[in-house]
Amino acid sequence: MAETKPSYLADFLQSPANTGLLLAGAASAVALSFPYGLLGAAFPLLATVGLELIACLFVPDMPRFRRWADQQRDRRGQAEQADRLMGEIRQRCSGPNQFRQYVEQHQVLSQQVVSLLAQTRERAGLLGLEDRDRIADVPNEFLRLHLSLMVMEERARSLDLRDVQRKLAQINSQISRPQDGMDVRQLERARDEYEALLARHQRMLSKRTAIEAAILALPDQLAEVYQIIMGEGTQGDGARLSGAIANLRQRQDIESEIAEDLADELPLAPPGEQAARRARTRSAN
Question: How distant, in Å, are the alpha carbons of 61, 83, 207 from that of 275?
Fold first, then answer.
């Protein structure tokens, strides 16, 4: 599905700076209307309209404004996705105490990410845009991994492996000794379905182990990135930072594999969202 092109004009019209300009113009018009009447109010209103038209022509195309608008759009998207993920997790929690633990862990990671990104902005060139995007997504990635684990556990509980294996053995027995009037083709199709179900279940168990390891490693990997960036900038820090970022990238690879199997049950981000954001920013530059 094609990405909807962002409207930077709408972003400008809704921006705090533009709202402040309009409010200042209106306040000036009201203030001047008392001593000078309608004629006094007309001057600030006309000036505000003129400034507004000029700003609408130039500001939405400015690279700096587009970067700001993209950042605001991404923050809103991350917040909306966090709400959706939290809602899905809340439905699967055994009680409020368990859900509270997820909320607290997400808040801790979010605070660490905010602090880390603030440090990278102060040290220009330390991280590329793609790496900053990856770090910014860590709190929601933490929620997605937990939700994936919950969904997998639900599937595992709903599947009776012994019953599936028993039915598969019966079908194989019927295929090996077919009777008159038996539709062997339908039996073979049923056998293939049951075998595929068992294979998917086995893959899910393997991925569950990978998810559990990723959940345990994610906070430590983020802390490692933070410690490197907050360090004194030794000669080996560049290689260490690249390695730490690569570890976060591996977590995204695991998540992408999970998304393919659980796409119908998990409110994951659109696959091209980060790439589209980077393309918008490059075009603004």
Answer: 20, 22, 26
